[in-house]
Amino acid sequence: MTEIIDVLMPIYRSKLNHLASSIKSVQNQSVPTRLICILNGMQKPLATFYEKFLISHGVDLILICPKKGVANALNFAIPYIRSDYIARQDDDDISHPFRLELILDYIKSNCLDIAGCNINVIDSEQNILSRRIYPAKDAQCK
Predict the structure, then answer these.
(1) Running along the chain, 142 residues long, what does each successive block of 10 average in pLDDT?
(2) DSSP helix/strand/coil, 16
(3) C-alpha closest to that of 104 among 32, 28, 39
(4) Does residue 128 sit in helix, strand or coil?
């Protein structure tokens, strides 16, 4: 059986073109995903606007968190998780199609509880402007 990865995406006043690209990149992963978008700290009219947008883009689950802030949104979503694996993505991130598969394989082969990845900073035409390389070993992180 193929594992599904729940992907949490907190949203607060996102630019719609960036949000649409981010959603598409989750939906186009090489492993099955369940995209959970969390609208956090929005007044009702704005939340309703984003709900309609997210529904039209095929988001799996939309939650409305009453408190603003990424940590609040992520914690609010925990009871809705169904899978053994949780990924997190910002509303303006675009994930490589194999991102989650590679991270999942790495977690399993190294008996890890958590993993991250490096990033490329891109412009509106997806040209790479810079790269951010993060520590890869436990000691480096500490």
Answers:
(1) 87 92 96 96 92 96 94 96 95 94 93 88 84 86 80
(2) helix
(3) 32
(4) strand
